[in-house]
Structures
1.
Amino acid sequence: MEVKTSSAPSILNWVSNHRDVPANLIVKIVDWFVLNRNADYGLAVMRMASGTLILGWLLQNIPVANRVWGPGSAYWDPYRAVLGYQWPLDILREAGTGFFWGWYAVAILLTIAFIVGWRTRVITPLFFVFYTAINAQNTPIADGGNYFIRIMLIYMIFADISRRWSLDARRRSLRGNNSESQIGTVLHNLALCLIVAQLCLVYFEAGMYKVQGSLWQSGEAMYYPISSKAYGTFPWLSELLTANTWMVVLLTYFTVIVQIAFPFLLFNRITRRIALISILGMHVGIAVVMGLPFFSGIMASADAVLVSSATWITIATWLGIQFRRIGRRIPIAKNWIRSEPVSMEGPLLNSEMPEDHESSTKESSMV
């Protein structure tokens, strides 16, 4: 009786059996960049959320704007010279009061247009110039959110951030003009990759910088910003968190681990959800405990591109249903609320659903 013996595994046999893997991988990558504009719902959320935060920032600072960024901030001129901002970002350096307030007013209008997604191909670069020029007048008072969103705006110039939930999308739908150029699609996806790469770089670098400090290694670091009067928004909450040593240690290590691990957790759907929930919890904590809502909100708005389009559609549909339920209880608004329930093809999305719904659930798979 002849007994067949299996041949020993070899690298040559494995390579021979998987010789099509590199070519298939290249095809998948090319298709991802060329066939569809990915994470368009996430970018729409990022546009609306970051724009709303900037609008609030501009409106809140109107009483002090002239002294902080206008002619009253001339004492910062030597510092501006060191930074070396070039035209048009230094246009307010010698501006008078009238020109400054005109610039500030236009910046507010551009922010509103950016939020609602009106003519974003033109508005976004103008918005970047007007907003950055104001910040360039007095960068020492800016926080990480101001710096981060300026970088994000550069990437968003090349992305189709108004493809969903915008006036541009409504106008294209009414005209029946949904044609998209392949070059525009590639630029959109490249910009998306740069946004994700920038996010990963910021988190990873921040985590690696922290882990080198002795206070972070010992688990004490979070005690100082939480208990600081300069950051504490709710003293009773700060005292509650710092009263327990183990809570301080847990928050310290949690912050470092989440930031360092964030880029590596994005490659799997389950770990990506864990990373996003964890990083959102960190931002909420920074906003509430340390009183930095603008910084936390800007960072969280960029994280929105990592959430799948199917998830954003589900959230939007649920919010639409809740809005209609509340509206029906208000006599004044009752006549404005449609009686029919919201569906995936209903008025909530304004005919903005992708032609291939299955592709929308997979379009964020790379990130």
2.
Amino acid sequence: MQTAQQKKQPPIGAETSSGTPAGASRVSWVDIAKGISICLVVMMHSVLGVEKAVGAEGWMHGIVAFCQPFRIPAFFLISGLFLARALKRDWADFLDRKLLHFAYFYVLWLTLQFIVKAPIFAADVGWGGVVMLYLTAFIEPFGTLWFIYLLPLFAIVVKLARGWNIPTIPVLAIAALLHLAPIHTGSVLIDEFASRFVFFVAGYAFAERVFAVAEWARSNGAVVLAALVGWGLINGVLVAYGLESTPGIALVLGGLGALAVASVASLATTLPIGGFLRFFGKNSLVIYLAFFFPMGVARTILLKLGQFDIGTTSLLVTLTAIISPLVLKVLIDWSGWGKFLFERPAWARLARTPRGAEKVSQLNR
């Protein structure tokens, strides 16, 4: 006969009201939030790339500008939500999952990007310069890959702080001060660490509250929509006046925007588009790693054709850059060839696990 406590527990695999699965690792709204975030990142690179190539702005420029205050903060905050679980692991397992996992894909896709771009670089700096650029990329994050370079460093810093018995709040305070400080050294590693670390720590420190906000949002759709309209107006006005990067304002807009993304994602779990976005989120790292090549090809072809205005061209490049990596992933899964592109093989692990080669589909694990 079941006890009262046992009757209250949801079955294994069921999803709780907050969107947190009981006995499972997937959370619907988190996947959707990652799907939204990765689409915003690809959109930014696609739009700005087209506009730089033609020397003019299109109608999508305003959308990219509106998303600028919260696009990356949301990504890092979501990445910190499940850090507490990872911190409980021993150092070997932690480094395997949080460092080597991303290091494998960083080195692999850094090399692939250099193979594609080397002739272009060589025209400017010579082949010796290309070699130096490649080697420097192991110290200074390269191009679009900087996110997965910094993410392991953020996790390691938090684990070290925990090992040294430093409370989370002081770590968060220091991270906030780094964000507020005028740190502009020209180094992607230093500048982005100082600017983004606070959002990662906030995701870790306030994970329960973020999940509570998501639960509340799903149950109070009308109120949330009204709040989102208000947030959107404030965010848009500050962007229009060029205040979005002002110290203090940038921190607030980043945090509020990340919560807005979480709220939208939670609401989307009840809509047909939710499954679509969740698929993107579950394959966020696949998109992140591979979007640069189809983006460049689509931009070159569409600009040569000259059939569309700048904004429409930017939209088509964005869609191509998002969908192409997913098509590639489907073809790889179907053919069985090229799995190393999106799966970390057993030899790249500190220790083998019963699962064998570890699949990669999302940016935060």
3.
Amino acid sequence: MRLAILTALLCLSVPARAEVTVFPALNGASDARTLVVYSSLDAPLAKPMIEGFQKANPGVAVRYEDLQTVDIYDRVVAETDAGKGTADIAFSSAMDLQVKLANDGYAQESRLPLSERWPRWANWRDTAYALTYEPAVFVYHKPSFRDAPPPATRGQFVDYLKTQGDKVYGRIATYDIERSGVGFMFMARDQEQYPDIWSVIRAMGAAGVKLYSTSGAILERIADGRFVLGYNILGSYAADWAARNPDVGIVLPKDYTVVMSRIGLVPAAAKSPDLGRRYLEYFMSAEGQTVMARELQIAAVNPEVSGENTANRMQEVLGGQLRPVPVSPGLMVYLDQVKRSRVIERWNEALRNP
């Protein structure tokens, strides 16, 4: 028993493991300064952004640490509190945790050339910046909908599951809100936007919904036809899969479409905050946002960037259908463990007893 307890304590004390990718300075200098990035964006996806940054800063090497969103938060807090110094920039899809870092003094103000022109909803006190525009979408297997269109609203989604539930039992998927921060945030927004959201959850439970913590696990199964529908899937990953898999289709829900953003900030204890701000500035620039829109398939926020894959264009076409999540302390509501536990308990109850 003592050995088991000791082993558990040792495991808890080990820092979260990151997938680390090092990009040497383009000028070949062995003593180049190094920008340290903590990010929840997969390194292969982030590569074009890093390459663009390094072209503009050939004397800077980049250490890119790919982490889960909770691990980013935990490491920034733990390293700051220990006086060790931490990443130069933290970039995460966990909007609530990023805002909590800023609100609790773990991020520093970054006054940048674009700060005043950045959309008001996407800038909190020049400290936490929304850098992407990513809708929550329905994803579907196109060959499974040759004879009828896929659901385009939550009401249609429920009707489809009620009429076709037996045929597609076990072939519907969404995020596991207990393990996916993005999934929980989408569910929290659904509660605010759709009074009858629990009817959707019960219908998915009756249809044998499968739950996953990552987008890739769901999209892979939709692409090969094992699943027919995915609910509230992060649109950026869906667009990337759809670009490579002709059988993957995307619907932006017509009743309303929640839009989340990845937030970038420079931690208060950054070892090289000037490099962090330089990277943040590139990420906000028209050049960086264009690279993101074209190569990462993630819509640009910068109002100066034109084209189809931009917040401006999406707002022109869809207008009030889009419900972007503002960067504000309101995001921290569901970090309250009591409220969070109540939502998860009701979620599990609805899935178990449809």
4.
Amino acid sequence: MIDVVGLRALRSVAALGSLVRAADQLGFTASAVSQQIKRLERQLGVPVLSPAGRGVVLTPAGQALVDRAPEVFQALERCADAAQSVADGAPRGVIRVVAFSTAVRGLLAPALPRLSSNCPDLRPRITEQDPEEALHSVDAGTADLALVHDADGLPTALPPSLVQRHVHTDVGDVVMHRTHPLARCDAPLAETDLASHSWVTSPPGTVCHQWFRRLFAQAPEEPDVRHLIDDFATQLSLVSSGEVIALVPRLARPPLGAELVARPLRRQPKREVHAAWRRSADTSPAIRALLAELGFPESEERR
């Protein structure tokens, strides 16, 4: 009998390229992952990893094993779903969710009280991860459901073993102090309205920074960026000074209070948010329950 733990470890090493990264992803030490794979090799009677410089590579036998691994995990998942269905399909146990930070704040946190009330035997466990890492976690079986966003308008590549559903469209607004001149504008703001003002923005490499750069793509001069801050609550504390304005996604926005106001843009920047899970878990009562609390009933057709 093949050791499932060792097989999962080997699959993670193959996907991530090293024992250390696989150990971090699986929650073990590198030594423990190495031992799991050695136990797998003893069971099979063939090596599945070979040294390569300071790292390792799959042997042909190891690659063949990894290629067939999804079938094993899908079969095990179907067995678990069948057992849950026998118990009237009631959502129970732990559902492991991975999501980017603003989805945790804007989508998951509001849904948790409803989930707790409607499914008292279901315990969500949430870990913050960027979209690419989150999809790998679901694909590798260390998470059950991921919330991911597209990257600057480009959909995140989805492994063939996963299925996804659109759950939300997030848009960005300009936030300012209520005494700021733009606060008096009733109509959506155009790019030309923003050119002469000072900003706090997200750092380069983030989706929100790309949104900001696109606002000024046709501007004759560079915008006056005073601060680069990754945390949106900190951005808003600087906006409260009245000296800068900020472009903030609605999912990331805490209550603005009396001092701040948000104004929409004429061309709203947006990103699409999807939930993703393994095809083999498509009938999971836990996943269906969480999707329902996110606003999507079981009867809705899945894409």
